[in-house]
Amino acid sequence: MTQHESVFNDVETREVNKVAALDIGSNSFHLVVARIVAGSVQILHRVKQKVRLAEGLSDDDILSDEAMERGLAMLKVVAESLKGFEPDSVRIVATHTLRKARNARDFINAAKHILPYPIEVISGVEEARLIYSGVAHTNHADGQQLVIDIGGGSTEFVIGEGFTPLLCRSLQMGCVSYTKRFFPDGELKSKAFQRAITAAAQELELIDNKYRRLGWVQCIGTSGTIRSLFTLCQQDRSNGHDTPVTLKRLRHLMKQFVNAGHIDKLDYPDLSEDRRVVIAGGLAILIAAFKALEIEGLVYSPAALREGVLYQMEDELHHADIRGRTASSLATRYDVDTSQATMVLNTTLTLYSEAESAWKLRGKDFKSMLGWAALLHEVGMQINSRGIQKHSAYILANVDMPGFTQEQQLLLATLVRFHRKKIRTSELPGFNLFDEQAIKRLIALLRLGVLLNIKRQEGFVPDLIIEVEQNELRITFPDGWLDEKPIISADLLRESQYWKALALKLTIFPDITQLHQIES
After folding, report:
1. What are the start and end residues of each CATH 3.30.420.40 domain in the chain?
2. Would you give the DSSP letter of residue 378?
3. CATH label, 17-121, candidates 3.40.605.10, 3.30.420.40, 3.90.550.10, 1.10.730.10
4. From residue 176, how far is each of 59, 92, 222, 383 by CA, in Å?
5. Residue 520 pLDDT > 50
């Protein structure tokens, strides 16, 4: 063995996890491959391609076949880079365009034949949170910082301190959509810029006062659009690329654009062809943001959404899940009876552990989503105990829930919506990531966990014998227990009737069918 071959023999190796994050953006698709070692995320490989999905989104929110084909072609390139990755080591997130497109499922279903990994359509607030995470892990700031990310279809604004985002918003304005709307023929006229700036200012009216009141000590811009604008504003400066961009510099750049007269005449060495065709909309949005939020200066950070996804994957491997903080916050805000929620959680997860194998509930999210649903099923109690399942579902479907994707949030709302009373399966929404049969079985387990704890008494639920087969769950109660609790036994019998809508059978021992009559 040569000296070179043996030099690492005595080197202690650390546990290494290889992960990948794909950002399906409205303008570009970005893939980042990294390894996680000793709590550090190390970037190994990047793939970026302009796809401009937002360009193919019609006024009635239908994504064109041409845009879908561009996106699917890029996914085939990505698939080559992801060969050999384990399912849990890859996360794919989609943003504004697939959030908005009414036929997004067509694209996602086609993507399933290219990539063996699920595509998560994340909310605008979740996108903002992940962007902030990426910036916070790569940029040090003393005090609060404002992060702005101009995407193809939306722009995210986050104020945070350290690693904690304090205020997250996503507005429906992006470089692709605004260029398409205000500069459709490529002409760069002053009036078109003013219309675009005014439209962006109208969007910013939703957040400007709140953001200015909270304040920040540093403003950081991310995304390719802001990088290009930052670079263009630095071109005639001799003091390097570290000087913050100001509103004066942005206005000067807009004047240069207007003097050029057309997108095709924007002749800047540092402006790529792909970026040139969408830069005007991005410039208008950034000028509006500077004016509305009274930003004094902006610096650029290369970190963005995909880095934030990677750092969350690292957090999930080594640190507490942010979803726990979200659940805790909701429990506090809506005065959840945490003792009752914990009892329901324990019973429900006991049922889940017995049913997991027979009912094929091995999806990585099933147990955690069922657990969150058990803990949060009574958030609607603050509105009214009557129809609580509907109130709780509405809250969980519409409240901001950092750490949860849109589909995870919809699943929580769905489970909670059907945790009691009649089950109308026609009202079950469609899912891309979750199987309908599995959802029905999770509903059944949550309902049973809630019912068994209906007395809201610690230690009320006895030791049970639980047996699960393909479409049946059998519970054996201790001798005499049900005889002393006629209301509970009647509830269980009624529940067995409700389960028929889920194509499931609930069997109770000792047999209680002879003890009670229920309405058909």
Report:
1. 17-121
2. T
3. 3.30.420.40
4. 14, 21, 16, 41
5. no
CB contact at 8 A, 96 and 151: yes
Return residue ranges of the chain for CATH 3.30.420.150: 139-302
Tokens of 157: 């604004």
> How do residues 361-370 score in pLDDT, each as one tens digit?
977 689 989 9
Nearest to residue 48, comparing CAs of 35, 31, 27, 67? 31
Give me the architecture of the 320-459 domain, per CATH. Orthogonal Bundle (1.10)
Token duo for residue 242: 């570290």
Looking at the chain, the domain(s) classified CATH 1.10.3210.10 span: 320-459
Pick the closest to residue 175 from 147, 200, 153 (CA basis): 153
End-to-end CA distance of the chain: 82
**Banded model confidence at residue 327, pLDDT cuts 50, 70, 90:** confident
Percent of the chain scored above 90 by pLDDT? 67
For residues 37 and 215, the model is more confident at 215
User: Contacts from 36-45 at CB under 8 Å and sequence distance 24+?
Assistant: 36/313, 36/314, 36/317, 38/14, 39/314, 39/318, 41/137, 41/307, 41/310, 41/311, 41/314, 44/18, 45/81
Cis peptide before 510 (omega within 30 of 0): yes
Between 425 and 17, the higher pLDDT residue: 425
Q: Please list, in sequence order, all residues whose beta carbon lies within 8 angstroms of the beta carbon of residue 438, skipping any fewer than 6 positions away.
A: 359, 360, 361, 363, 366
Structure tokens at 250: 């942005």
Q: What integer pLDDT is reported at residue 20 of this predicted model?
A: 93
C-alpha to C-alpha distance for 25 and 95, rounded to whole angstroms:
6
Binned at pLDDT 50, 70 and 90, residue 399 comes out as: confident
Q: What is the CATH number of domain 139-302?
A: 3.30.420.150
**Dihedral through CA 239, CA 240, CA 242, CA 248, nearest 10?**
60
Give the bridge partners for 152, in sequence order: none
So what's the pLDDT on residue 303?
82
**What percentage of the chain exceeds 70 in pLDDT?**
91
Cα 299 to Cα 215: distance, rounded to the nearest angstrom = 16
> What's the mean pLDDT when you consider all of the chain?
89
